[in-house]
Write a structure and sequence with these properties.
The protein is an alpha+beta fold and 292 residues long. It has one domain: Sandwich (Jelly Rolls). It is 28% helix and 24% strand. The chain contains six helices and 14 strands. The radius of gyration is 19 Å and the shape is globular.
């Protein structure tokens, strides 16, 4: 395996006291296999049912290619009617995926099929549930969420491989300045340690999700995801209780994200090259200093 990875903690169920003490407060990830056992979605959300309720809605699609410095972040690679896309990912391998899709805008009845886990924590953003779809071979690049939420990420219809890193490793992961994502020039599963020496010794957590499993990803956790099968996931987001974390979220959205977008559009490839060079310098400095 590429990094120093340990298996993620996994439980069938968990009570609020245990969850708060051992996972929420220390910000440790966890897989809860039985969280969705009483969700109608667990059995109801088949590919055919989702095709039926969303239909021919045209959706933007993304692939594994490196971001184009001349385009805004998260620019789509293609478009396709939703029902045709579902047929594609169930039929054959593809890199194409749907990113942060508000499926409930098009099929609000789906909200009746899920339950926010309020018995474990509060702060859920009930207006922001979102879905992610991917074909086998599609990859979500290494990043952490810019708004710094806690995330309950439930997977449906297949398998997904997830690798997680604490935020303390961001320099060694070649985090690009003014962003919340890493240099895209290395393969997270098989990095070239000669070319990217700062990755050697980085510690992470290995996670494999199956149908119905829920991954708790605490705020600021770096994550890389690969769809092993054509399948889909639901993310429920919740605010961290601390004022400092909320302030950091606002800063990331208003300053870090805003500045990066303006500079990217103004300087394009030159700015992208500068960011990559600075990320490499930061990583080498952290490695030389023996820091995460």
């Amino acid at each position: 395996m590429s990094f120093i990875l340990t298996p993620i903690d996994t439980v069938e169920s968990i009570d609020k006291a245990d969850f708060t003490k051992n996972y929420l407060n220390p910000r440790r990830p966890l897989v809860i296999k039985g969280l969705t056992k009483d969700w109608p979605a667990r059995e109801k959300w088949t590919p055919e049912y989702l095709k039926e309720v969303v239909g021919h809605k045209v959706v933007p699609l993304y692939d594994n290619s490196k971001a184009d410095p001349s385009k805004p972040i998260n620019s789509a690679a293609a478009e396709m009617p939703f029902d045709e896309y579902i047929d594609l990912i169930k039929r054959e391998p593809t890199e194409l995926r749907i990113f942060f899709f508000n499926i409930f805008k098009h099929a609000p009845q789906l909200l009746d099929d899920i339950k926010f886990p309020k018995d474990l924590m509060g702060g859920f953003l009930e207006s922001m549930p979102s879905m992610f779809f991917g074909g086998s071979n599609s990859v979500t690049f290494l990043h952490y969420d810019i708004d710094l939420p806690h995330i309950f990420h439930t997977h449906f219809g297949g398998r997904k491989h997830v690798i997680l890193f604490e935020n303390k490793w961001k320099r060694r992961l070649y985090c690009l300045p003014n962003t919340t994502y890493a240099l895209e020039d290395y393969d997270v599963l098989n990095p070239d340690f000669e070319k990217f020496p700062a990755l050697k010794g980085v510690e992470g957590i290995d996670c494999h999700l199956e149908h119905g499993d829920t991954l708790f990803m605490p705020t600021g956790l770096w994550h890389w995801m690969k769809y092993v099968d054509g399948s889909y996931s639901l993310s429920l987001r919740a605010w961290d209780a601390s004022i400092s974390r909320k302030a950091a979220s606002v800063y990331n959205l208003a300053v870090k994200g805003g500045i990066d977008s303006v500079l990217k559009m103004a300087f394009k490839a030159n700015y992208a090259k500068f960011k990559e060079q600075l990320a490499i310098k930061w990583a080498e400095n952290a490695l030389a200093a023996g820091r995460p």
